[in-house]
Model the fold of this input.
Amino acid sequence: MTSQNALYQEYPALWHAYARIFDALDENKSEEFVDCFTSEGVIFVQGRGETRGRELQHYIARTASGRPCHHFTNFLVTAVSDAKARARANFVLVGASDGELYARGHTDDSLEKGSDGNWRFSGIQFLFNWASVKYRSGGRVKL
Done:
C-alpha cells in the first residue's frame, strides 16, 4: 500500500528516473541509459521483445537509427515503499527530423531504490495504443 507521506517524499526522485531514461534514449547516451536500470533490469517494447541485464549496454547503439524522440506525461506512481515502486507514464513518439507523430502508448514499470538513493528500473514496458502507418511499416513496432 502506498502511504501519502512516502508518495510525496519519493515522487520527485521517481519522476527524475523517467526524465533520465527518456533523455538517455533520445540523446543516445549508452552509459546513462544502463545506469537507469538495476543490474538485472529489463526493457520490453511491444512487438520487439525484451532486453535485459548486460545486454542493455548495446540497446542504444542497436536501436539508434531512426529512433524518434520520447515525450512523457501523466506520470502516475501506483505503489511506493522505502525501496520499491510501481509507476506508469503515457508517452508519444515524435519524429526527430520531421516532427511527425509516430506513436502513442504507456509504460508499465517497476523501480527499485539503490543504495545511492537513486531510483532505477527493474522493468520498463513500452505498450502501444496507436502507431502511424509509417512507424509500423518501418518495422519499429507491431500492434
Summary: The chain has a mean pLDDT of 91. The radius of gyration is 15 Å.
